[in-house]
Specification:
single chain; 6-stranded parallel beta sheet; alpha/beta; 446 residues; globular
């Protein structure tokens, strides 16, 4: 049986999908990405927002059409939506043959065996159990990979259902993380992107203290790794020790993904976020003072219940003042099961949409200013390929995370540039929020 995989959603979901691919290989099945020419397809779903669930249901419906046309035999629904909507799956996905929750990834071979015997199968497992140490087949790139250091979340933000889907916060043992990191680098990965739902909490459950600042130098010491990138650092958990490590380790790119969601004290309290707006402002000043050249990414929610015009104006003023180089802006989505869904003063959908548009316009101006400031500079760029249409190579600078930020387009001699190489690129122009340049030194750095 040939099994195809479709992965939706976040980095943690992608890692789970890669683990399932490995387990499927190990169970003796042929594996593919996508649905073409497959006997069975696994859709690894996101369940965080209604929009993501609708995307998953659309993917599943497309597979159902293939199944009814005789082009597919089995459909397996896995991931966060499967976990969160566990009691409703038979109604939501009546044509699916199997279901895997977030606590059952490592047993996909068992489930496939049940399906081959003509049985319907469901595996959900314990979402609070220690993180399974399962090998994976990296599918994102030949040059970079997610490095998941923990699972689950203990933060009970009012808008979020992740703790109910993925369980309590569980750190992976340091030795297992380092072992996987070495394996990824040996396989050719130049960049490791450290990720968890709350990266800064790492170690608290295993070692009784936060140990991210101890883990990072050990990752940097691995021969062959060039870049370490940090995602999802919570503002109230960032210590002086961690700042010093980020500032002093040359392999840690000076880019931090630090979700704040809002700046208004009223909104932060309503969202069950720790800290105040003034504390966030002070942290941003400290980070920029102590980490020269730092680029910040954050995520923001507009239209949370009770958000007034004054709250929104404060957020806009903050963005203009701070000039955060990278930001994702989302309208509040009322999620059944989250505390915020029952809050009074729900904001009208049109108002939410307009506020998102306004913030997005502000951010485009900030991004354009940042890009203009890079003209004349020489940046290190990880080459990801060649674009036949533009006749330029393209890649990411240290200031760009894959899939969410821009790319750098650059000239280089054919045969002298290869994907996976890191090059010095002099920025000569900008276009539509992205950078254009030319190799400053034709000799490859790494």
């Amino acid at each position: 049986m040939k099994v195809g995989f479709i992965s939706l959603g976040c980095a943690k979901n992608q890692v789970n999908c890669e683990q399932m691919i490995w387990q499927t290989y190990e169970a003796g099945y042929e594996v593919a990405l996508g649905a073409e020419d497959c006997d069975a397809v696994v859709v690894n779903t996101c369940g965080f927002l209604e929009e993501a669930r609708q995307e998953a249901l659309a993917e599943i419906e497309a597979l159902v059409e293939r199944k009814r046309a005789g082009k597919l035999e089995k459909i397996i629904v896995s991931g966060c939506m499967a976990q969160w909507k566990r009691e409703e799956l038979e109604q939501l996905c009546p044509d699916a043959d199997g279901f895997i929750g977030v606590g059952g990834y490592e047993d996909i071979g068992k489930l496939l065996g049940q399906l081959e015997r003509g049985e319907k199968a469901s595996l959900f497992g314990d979402i609070h159990a220690p993180v399974p140490e399962v090998d994976r087949v990296v599918c994102t790139s030949d040059h970079w990979a997610w490095l998941r250091i923990a699972e689950g979340c203990d933060n009970r933000c009012a808008y979020c259902v992740i703790p109910y889907i993925r369980g309590r916060f569980r750190s992976r043992p340091e030795e297992k993380i380092l072992e996987e990191a070495r394996s990824l680098v040996e396989a050719g990965m130049k960049e490791l992107i450290v990720v968890a739902q709350d990266t800064t909490r790492y170690g608290l459950d295993l070692y009784g203290r936060r140990t991210l600042a101890e883990l990072l130098p050990k990752l940097c010491a691995i021969e062959g790794v060039e870049w370490i990138r940090l995602h999802y650092l919570y503002p109230d958990e960032i210590t002086d020790e961690l700042i010093d490590v980020i500032a002093s380790e040359p392999k840690i790119v000076k880019y931090i993904d630090l979700p704040i969601q809002h700046i208004s004290d009223r909104m932060l309290r309503a969202m069950h976020r720790r800290g105040t707006g003034d504390e966030i402002r002070a942290l941003f000043r400290k980070l920029r003072d102590r980490i020269p050249g730092l680029v910040l990414r954050t995520s923001l929610i507009a239209g949370f219940p009770g958000e007034t015009d004054e709250d929104f104006e404060e957020l806009c003023e903050f963005l203009l003042e701070q000039k955060i180089e990278r930001a994702g802006v989302f309208p509040y989505s009322p999620e059944a099961g989250s505390p915020a869904v029952n809050l009074p003063d729900q904001v009208d959908e049109d108002v939410k949409r307009r506020r998102v548009e306004l913030i997005t316009d502000l951010q485009l101006r900030v991004v354009d200013e940042f890009c203009e400031s890079q003209v004349g500079r020489t940046l290190r760029v990880l080459c990801e390929g060649y674009d036949d249409e533009t006749e330029l190579f393209f890649g990411r600078s240290e200031y760009d995370s894959p899939g969410i930020d821009g790319v750098v387009h650059f000239e280089g001699e054919e045969g002298g540039v290869r994907p996976g190489g890191i090059y010095r690129v002099k920025i000569t122009a900008t276009y539509d929020g992205e950078l254009i340049g030319v190799i400053d030194n034709e000799e490859e750095e790494t």
